[in-house]
């Protein structure tokens, strides 16, 4: 079976968050299960792009509204990722250093989708499945079915995976002229709430719709940023498949980004050494419990709560706990974390920015990883934390609820709280400190978490079973 994954991110080529992790891993594991999995993303000017060699496999041009763009499809030469990687290079649109956040993102990702479709249209054979990820690729299922240029691709099954339904990629009907011509009687399929909504269009048109955890799918029926009724209507073709983690990248025993590697037998020494380095670097006291946060500093992740959680905890429990934050995102959250850093004299530090090696050190060197998410479709951080012997502290929502059991329950290995609110989190901080001092219990909780298998094996198989069900 040949699967083409189409995405805006793919680790280690271009990653902003969890989408990149999944698209960089799932195809590798599908390959191991005997499928041919290919990935196509835009050719941003990332470090990976600059330091690897590519062959041009397709050259063409296209209209985006009234503008003409040349584009190339490049294939990475060494195949080092464990799947075929293709990059769509569109000078003037996709040759940016970053992935998102440009004023013409709508045009950039529309052009990407058109280029990918034009390219597949030229293949001698057809893929068995076209697998689209998130709204940046959401118009593809629609165009496969109704785009006049793509009638040859009409029968190719399409899948949409929703990594986060908060982001839908809406744009106004005034930009309709940018979309390649299609059967206008079908325009309603593009619409949601009076705008062109790529995520909604994909939910309507894809043959199957998956979410990245079963719990998140259940939540979407009642809370989907305006798409609840649509998802409920399409319920019959939906399925929740829990993300796995790439155990070749996320393994404390071989992770080259750690000063000291460790495994389940050497976890205490390993974590102690990594914690020591981390605390030295950030001016923290390594004898105290260390609670960290890694992620996009946005409301969905509960990042706006962090300044108050941290200052209140340090005020109520002086000299009892440390906090460390790594992230970037909304400017007011960044600003208020930096303000907090200046006002509390000890016990807290923050690194604003994106830093992959530092994230690995934090997973290894922290005692607890805090995730006060308001919305969490799956969450990968808690799975990485578990593998690194770090106890996740999570709000009971979406994929966090599916993957973390409170240590107060039988065989539990994490800390759960119900509300994304300062009081609930501060209470959990107290529980974390108590657990930290109960060394026997902490050790049992840690080992319990480390033993859990969150590798891609069974989830990759579930995707294959789902593809087969479309035949
Ligand atoms: N400043 C920083 N420096 C270094 N690394 C950083 C970083 N900020 C974030 N990361 C890394 O980015 C990834 C974040 O993954 P998540 O799954 O938690 O979030 P995201 O919301 O992006 O993904 C969406 O898609 C994924 C995948 O389906 C879902 O798990 C998730 O719930 C959904 O919101 C992790 O690898 C984390 O270590």
From TrEMBL:
In the record, biological process GO terms are: glycogen biosynthetic process
What SUPFAM superfamilies does the entry give?
UDP-Glycosyltransferase/glycogen phosphorylase
The record places domain Glycosyl transferase family at 282-418
Q: What is its EC number?
A: 2.4.1.21
Q: Which GO terms describe its molecular function?
A: alpha-1,4-glucan glucosyltransferase (ADP-glucose donor) activity; alpha-1,4-glucan glucosyltransferase (UDP-glucose donor) activity
User: What is this protein's function per UniProt?
Assistant: Synthesizes alpha-1,4-glucan chains using ADP-glucose.
> Which species?
Chitinophaga niastensis
Gene3D superfamilies documented for this protein: Glycogen Phosphorylase B
Q: Pfam families from the entry?
A: Glyco_transf_5, Glycos_transf_1
HAMAP family in the record = Glycogen_synth
Q: What class of enzyme is it?
A: transferase
Q: Which residues form the Starch synthase catalytic domain?
A: 3-232
Query: How is this protein named in the record?
Result: Glycogen synthase
Alphabetic keyword roster: Glycogen biosynthesis, Glycosyltransferase, Transferase
Pathway given for this chain reads: Glycan biosynthesis; glycogen biosynthesis
Query: In which residues is ADP-alpha-D-glucose bound?
Result: 15
Q: Which reaction does it catalyse?
A: [(1->4)-alpha-D-glucosyl](n) + ADP-alpha-D-glucose = [(1->4)-alpha-D-glucosyl](n+1) + ADP + H(+)
Q: Does the keyword DNA damage apply?
A: no
Family stated for the protein in its record: Belongs to the glycosyltransferase 1 family. Bacterial/plant glycogen synthase subfamily.
Q: Which InterPro entries match?
A: Glyco_trans_1, GS/SS, Starch_synth_cat_dom
């Amino acid at each position: 079976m040949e699967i083409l994954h189409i995405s805006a991110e793919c680790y280690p080529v271009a990653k902003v968050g969890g989408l990149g992790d999944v698209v960089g891993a799932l195809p590798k594991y599908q390959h191991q299960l005997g499928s041919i999995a290919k990935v196509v993303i835009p050719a941003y000017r990332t470090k990976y792009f600059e330091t690897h060699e590519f062959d041009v496999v397709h050259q063409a041009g296209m209209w985006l509204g009234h503008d003409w763009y040349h584009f190339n499809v490049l294939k990475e030469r060494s195949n080092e990722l464990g799947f075929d990687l293709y990059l769509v290079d569109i000078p003037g649109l996709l040759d940016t250093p970053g992935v998102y956040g440009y004023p013409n993102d709508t045009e950039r990702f529309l052009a990407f989708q058109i280029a990918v479709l034009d390219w597949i249209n030229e293949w001698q054979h057809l893929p068995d499945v076209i697998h689209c990820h998130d709204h940046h690729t959401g118009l593809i299922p629609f165009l496969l079915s109704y785009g006049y240029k793509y009638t040859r691709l009409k029968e190719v099954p399409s899948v949409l995976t929703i990594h986060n339904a908060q982001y839908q990629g809406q744009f106004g009907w005034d930009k309709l002229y940018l979309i390649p011509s299609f059967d206008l009687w079908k325009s309603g399929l593009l619409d949601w709430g009076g705008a062109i909504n790529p995520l909604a269009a994909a939910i309507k048109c894809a043959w199957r719709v998956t979410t990245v955890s079963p719990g998140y799918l259940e939540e979407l029926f009642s809370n989907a940023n305006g798409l609840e009724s649509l998802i409920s209507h399409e319920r019959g073709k939906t399925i929740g498949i829990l993300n796995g983690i790439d155990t070749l990248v996320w393994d404390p025993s071989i992770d080259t980004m750690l000063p000291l590697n460790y495994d389940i037998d050497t976890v205490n020494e390993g974590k102690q050494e990594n914690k020591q380095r981390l605390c030295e670097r950030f001016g923290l006291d390594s004898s105290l419990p260390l609670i960290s946060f890694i992620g996009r500093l946005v409301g969905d992740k509960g990042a706006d709560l962090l300044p108050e959680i941290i200052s209140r905890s340090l005020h109520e429990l002086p000299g009892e706990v440390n906090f460390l934050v790594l992230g970037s995102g909304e400017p007011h959250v960044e600003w208020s974390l930096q303000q907090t850093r200046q006002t509390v004299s000890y016990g807290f530090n923050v690194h604003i920015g994106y830093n992959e090696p530092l994230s690995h050190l934090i997973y290894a060197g922290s005692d607890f990883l805090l995730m006060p998410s308001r919305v969490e479709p799956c969450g990968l951080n808690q799975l990485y934390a578990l593998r690194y012997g770090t106890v996740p502290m999570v709000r009971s929502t979406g994929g966090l609820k599916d993957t973390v059991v409170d240590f107060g329950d039988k065989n539990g290995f994490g800390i759960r709280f119900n509300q994304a609110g300062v009081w609930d989190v501060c209470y959990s901080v107290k529980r974390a400190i108590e657990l930290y001092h109960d060394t026997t219990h902490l050790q049992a909780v840690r080992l319990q978490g480390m033993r859990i298998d969150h590798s891609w094996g069974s989830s990759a198989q579930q995707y294959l079973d789902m593809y087969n069900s479309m035949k």
